[in-house]
Amino acid sequence: MRQAGRHFLQIPGPSAVPERILKAISLQTIDHRGPDFAEIGHKALAGMKTIFKTEQNVFIYPSSGTGAWEAALVNTVSSGGKVLMYETGHFAFMWSNLAGKIGLLPELIEGDWRGGADPNQIEDRLRADSQHEIKAVCVVHNETSTGSVSPIEDVRRAMDAAKHPALLMVDSISGLASIDFRFDDWGVDVCVSGSQKGLMLPPGLSFNAVSDRALENSKTVTTPRSYWDWQDMVGPNQKGFFPYTPGTNLLYGLIEAIDMLHEEGLDNVFARHSRHGTATRAAVQAWGLEVLCARQGQESGVLTAVKVPEGHSADAFRATALKHYDISLGNGLSKVADKVFRIGHLGDFNDLMLMATLSGVEMGLDKSGVPHNAGGTQAALEHLKAA
Amino acid sequence: MRQAGRHFLQIPGPSAVPERILKAISLQTIDHRGPDFAEIGHKALAGMKTIFKTEQNVFIYPSSGTGAWEAALVNTVSSGGKVLMYETGHFAFMWSNLAGKIGLLPELIEGDWRGGADPNQIEDRLRADSQHEIKAVCVVHNETSTGSVSPIEDVRRAMDAAKHPALLMVDSISGLASIDFRFDDWGVDVCVSGSQKGLMLPPGLSFNAVSDRALENSKTVTTPRSYWDWQDMVGPNQKGFFPYTPGTNLLYGLIEAIDMLHEEGLDNVFARHSRHGTATRAAVQAWGLEVLCARQGQESGVLTAVKVPEGHSADAFRATALKHYDISLGNGLSKVADKVFRIGHLGDFNDLMLMATLSGVEMGLDKSGVPHNAGGTQAALEHLKAA
Amino acid sequence: MRQAGRHFLQIPGPSAVPERILKAISLQTIDHRGPDFAEIGHKALAGMKTIFKTEQNVFIYPSSGTGAWEAALVNTVSSGGKVLMYETGHFAFMWSNLAGKIGLLPELIEGDWRGGADPNQIEDRLRADSQHEIKAVCVVHNETSTGSVSPIEDVRRAMDAAKHPALLMVDSISGLASIDFRFDDWGVDVCVSGSQKGLMLPPGLSFNAVSDRALENSKTVTTPRSYWDWQDMVGPNQKGFFPYTPGTNLLYGLIEAIDMLHEEGLDNVFARHSRHGTATRAAVQAWGLEVLCARQGQESGVLTAVKVPEGHSADAFRATALKHYDISLGNGLSKVADKVFRIGHLGDFNDLMLMATLSGVEMGLDKSGVPHNAGGTQAALEHLKAA
Amino acid sequence: MRQAGRHFLQIPGPSAVPERILKAISLQTIDHRGPDFAEIGHKALAGMKTIFKTEQNVFIYPSSGTGAWEAALVNTVSSGGKVLMYETGHFAFMWSNLAGKIGLLPELIEGDWRGGADPNQIEDRLRADSQHEIKAVCVVHNETSTGSVSPIEDVRRAMDAAKHPALLMVDSISGLASIDFRFDDWGVDVCVSGSQKGLMLPPGLSFNAVSDRALENSKTVTTPRSYWDWQDMVGPNQKGFFPYTPGTNLLYGLIEAIDMLHEEGLDNVFARHSRHGTATRAAVQAWGLEVLCARQGQESGVLTAVKVPEGHSADAFRATALKHYDISLGNGLSKVADKVFRIGHLGDFNDLMLMATLSGVEMGLDKSGVPHNAGGTQAALEHLKAA
């Protein structure tokens, strides 16, 4: 039986793609070597600099975000080099895993998955590395598996305090264009991102923002690479072109997305995500449930991970909500599998869509017999009225 | 400044058009005289019979619903002929107005705009018409200006009881495909409808379902007509064609819409609209406001008209809701202008979209200072949980 | 078996709809009574004035062109009034037929279907009408059934020479936006047009351009009317609205179409159609076939009707071309049924598309055994090279 | 000034994307971890096996074809390993270049760019490699820079004759789904392809078809890899999922493309490309120009590279054709830069589109003053008539 109305895709990415972007990506493909393409290339590259808030370098890959993780590492650290990572959650773990697979030596500072990276721990570790064997510090900005935000600026300060030359590499795949990020101001060296979160596109494009220092450094890095090689990008990019066939139709969408973000204003975008995070937590509290992120001030505006009471299955609840209310919620990953569900409130989203989402969660909790207090929906509504 | 997320078009039509239909209408136009067109014509005509629940005749016009009102009259009543109408609200009044403009003599039974047509009054009037001067009885099924439903089957019984030969003509522009309608079972002679309500299309197509008796009768009707003439349609329609250029792209969408309705099941569609009507009224009651439709059992599943307290402006409230929460609500028309607002809950719509809608109404009431009790949203949610 | 590549829709309308317009019409429908709609209404109405080249009045109907024919007559001539028409071909005949159906007295000057209307015959007839019983002179600008163009400016001069007060009414359904038309300069009183020809839209919108004189005159016209009534349009149109639900999504497309025409420049649009008409006739001549339009200087830039040799079936040829080369050509209508085929070269069309079209015709002639000389395609190509 | 009508994108890929596919890729993105996704994953993977004609393995990457080149190598040859390549043209050269960049030792057999790979040379080289240091033989099936086809089956025979255990790796980025390719029958071990040629999609997906032997062998290959690692794909693919976020919207399009190819029939697709190649060469011959591919029987059905007479600029000609006739033609690459232009006749293409294309080439030659004989267009037409 057909379900009426719109599906609510409330996983923490891909986010629902707005009509304007879907129309843009369905324009006819053009010759990526022809004279009309340069404008597209220039707009996409220059536009992404305004999103990363950088005047340095941006590279765009036809790949998913995982590819941009790999790109960040192979261009910065020679085979066998050490990278320091912080286990904010599943994705931080996966990134360190990837580093190992491609021949680097990742060192993972253990975390409890309930907050962002701890700058003090990073500083301590760097001070202990008197030989400067650590080539890069890798931190996840918005940990998609937990809904926690790392204080990137503080990590930079910690590195500076330790007087350590490692590069600061940040994964903001799910944070960029939803919560504040400032590449240049914060002294980031490489930022990894993807198209299907705050940028509101389907998956298929990924990004590296790169500091001049990291780009210069990459010339001496010996890790074999071709597809991901920044140096091959520089020349063609300057003319608005790419060294190999780009994802033309997604680039159409990217330009539209950048326009949409600026039409709303990045600060308004950030305030909106923050408001929705707070309202969601008001609902969770009223339901008598617990938010996974336990560190105040580090809760994400992108998604909220919610713990279900012991003895109940988060996945069974999600299946019920999907079946009866046509809403997709995110699952708990690895350590928290079946113990949490994740509410995505990112991308092209507004107050009424949030209320629909929270209504779907509350009805799903009710229908699947997860113990909770009714009224979280109204609590969120009251929060939004006051905001 | 751009508003993020989806606009909520919650007027009682046009309803928001689903993606499947938007894609269908954007297919390339084909030759409406060519061999491939016949399948489209046949599918649209046969499909509409399943929606009207008739095995008699359906005609499709490239026009808005107003045109189909005119078509219904010019094919059934000769110039100067009498038609009996019942003032359920603004649209019943407008239809009688149109009858006068095209040279007929409409007689309008006054109503209070707070319920459907009264079969007893109709029966009395018909009994008094011993000369059978009244050629047609015209009733609005779902009065879009008030949110009331007329008991069509009872009107038919009243006409039969009065042993009056007048044709029964029904406007179900906003009722068809949202609330139960049975052309053959109920003994309707002409039903007028349009594309932009329960059929989920953009405006631009309109319909006449026509009984064999009315079609035969039309041969003797002398009112001049060309565009609307049923007789010109019959021959071409039998082969899947039309006497003049049809609205090809909207027909693509119509076929898709009919498929979607049957994929869900018409009974499920009706139950859904009914549930949403009830939930909306639960919210209105909890807000301490009054529903315009005052006759129990005649409240519409398509829309709910809500009275604002004396001294407050429904239109100011609507403007506030639109500005702050990006939701379009219907205005009060003529007699009830600025005194009511109308919540559309029709078309391709589901529980979460309703909750979004009611949240928007409640936040709008709050923001615009219309006196009300908070909590209507949660009241509707409780209703949906229980449903 | 699926046929690869694009279908060539080379009938004389509907013309193939460009991607930009298909995308525009698939945008979400909005509230046609809401504040955002006014801009759409204003743009559509003001834009159409630039296409008609008038500073007087334009009305837009959600209907096909046949409706606009009816609208032109019911607003200008009271029931029983005389209209003088000129039989340029099938569509002129159909218009006069319609006039009869709605209660007017059409008088049709016979024509041979091989050229435009003859101003001298019209002048003679008007001079003979000393009682001024003729209320309107109706002429088809571009006769879609024959590919001939009537000299509208000369018809106006003839009417003036005869000092006759009748209104000049022109059908430019297939001429507007493809060949030169100047409402104000040429002294036209009513021009009828439709969306699916030079305007490149799907069918479903139609137009009346109306002189101030005709609009004023309509107040005294007694023919019953409602849907088509100009007077109901005037007030709402001034605010960017319509008296009943408009064809919102086609209006989106119309605005896009008007932009596209001005981006190319109307004079360039006309020159392009003229060049393609000439090139097509060069092909026809090289094939040794005959163009239906026999009056030099009146051949249409919109379409070319071609006679097939006696004893051969134009329809069999068309079916062969469609089956083997996926090209739709127009059929001969009524008097010339099966004797001519029509090549549409209108709308969003360019030199290479014309060459594809003529290649399809030549291959179709060859495949279906219609006697002709090979080489028409190359002849057209040489013409285009020289142009 | 806007150019009317459709742009003709006649480069040898990306090919013009058909409407059906553009609509498919603009459907809303869904949860790639949710229950509905599995059907999409299964359809895409199983469907690609029917296109490669294999019952072994297919992997799909969100990347352009260059990524699939890299994937083929990093999964099959350990760092420092030797690969034998054959210089059929620019792309064969680029692939060998890539092999060097990622730490392999490519050996390139020189070619004259005027035909496919020579199996005899390959056999001789393999026989000389008695130590079996060569781990893979890499051949381009359809060389996009020259329009020549390599005899893959003969290469396999040559390898067998030499009793050499190297893997046979084939680039059929521009050949697949346009000209005959049989992965299993021909004994290929890895075939690399991309979405934007015969598969008619925008760029952004790439493919590896992989023999069981190559997949088993990959377990022992030590080249570091993560994004491209086949082994990570196997498990998730079996359930219809991917190890990281896939290019969901392009997968929608891929499924549509596979359906379209089978609706036409692969053999019909191949026959169509072959017919268009022959017709194009008939035109080139009539123009008195020379086709770059000089080996009879190895001319491509995908594209035709044409030499311009000495002293003339192919690029100036292409710019003229683009400006005046809105047709994009492919440029000459590296060794043949400015000396050849390439006519793409691949993808969703038909006889009339080919005639449009050749007309554009002939008009462009004329306009830009490249010496040639008129009449190539008609020569191609005569060929198509006879076909």
Automatic annotation (TrEMBL), chains A, B, C, D:
Has UniProt tagged this entry with the keyword Transferase? yes
GO MF term list: transaminase activity
Indicate whether Nucleotide-binding appears among the record's keywords.
Answer: no
One Pfam entry for this protein is Aminotran_5
User: Which SUPFAM superfamilies does the record cross-reference, listed alphabetically?
Assistant: PLP-dependent transferases (SSF53383)
- The Aminotransferase class V domain sits at 29-332
Going by the entry's taxonomy, the superkingdom of the source organism is recorded as Bacteria
Which InterPro entries does its entry note? Aminotrans_V_dom, PyrdxlP-dep_Trfase, PyrdxlP-dep_Trfase_major, PyrdxlP-dep_Trfase_small, SP_NH2Trfase/AEP_transaminase
Keywords in alphabetical order: Aminotransferase, Pyridoxal phosphate, Transferase
Cofactor entry? pyridoxal 5'-phosphate
Family, as annotated: Belongs to the class-V pyridoxal-phosphate-dependent aminotransferase family.
PANTHER family with a match to the protein in the record: ALANINE--GLYOXYLATE AMINOTRANSFERASE (PTHR21152:SF40), AMINOTRANSFERASE CLASS V (PTHR21152)
Q: What name is this protein filed under?
A: Aminotransferase class V-fold PLP-dependent enzyme
